[in-house]
Every structure is written in structure tokens, then in C-alpha cells.
Specification:
alpha/beta, five-stranded mixed β-sheet, 3 helices, 25% helix, globular
Length: 107
Amino acid sequence: MNERAPHSGFASVNGLSLYYEVHGVGEPLILLHGGVAGIPMLDPLIARLSGSRQVVAVELQGHGRSAGVDRPLAFEAMADDIAALVNQLGLAPADVFGLSLGGGVAL
């Protein structure tokens, strides 16, 4: 069985300390939560999808363990953060799935 223990970290991207968790192995799938939420809202998806994918759950700017920074909360800026994280972790190419706010960022 090819499993890897979940792990987490902070990535320094675009002046932001972005919190992320990695679960499972396989092709990368980035999961983005909805507004005023965080990774816990994604737990059912993580549990289901990490059996066949490397799931990377991210807490967006100003949410959960990712601190706010002095910039507007804008889809484009948060999308740039995710692209920088994907590059920093060497995950390209990766699929992206978001709920609500995370869906806007994914688009």
C-alpha cells in the first residue's frame, strides 16, 4: 500500500504565510474552502478523496491559520497565492476544486 502520513506547513508566498495540509498520494488536487471557513469544512472531502489523490487543502488569506495581510481580499490575489504554492511544492500540474469563495479563487 502506497500511503503517506498527512503533513502540514506554512508556505511563504506573496508576503503571506499560507497554511496547507497534504493528505494521501497520487495526482495533486488542491482543495479551497468557502468564506469565513477553513480546512475543517473540507474534512469529509479530504477523507474521501485522499484514498486516490494527493489532496492539498489550503487556508486562504485571512482564514484559519493563514494570517491576514495588508491587501484586499481579491480572487486574483488569492489565486496568485495558490499558483505560487503549487510551484513552491512542485505540484504542477494540479487540479483545483473550491467551494464558494474557494470556487471563485479556483476560477
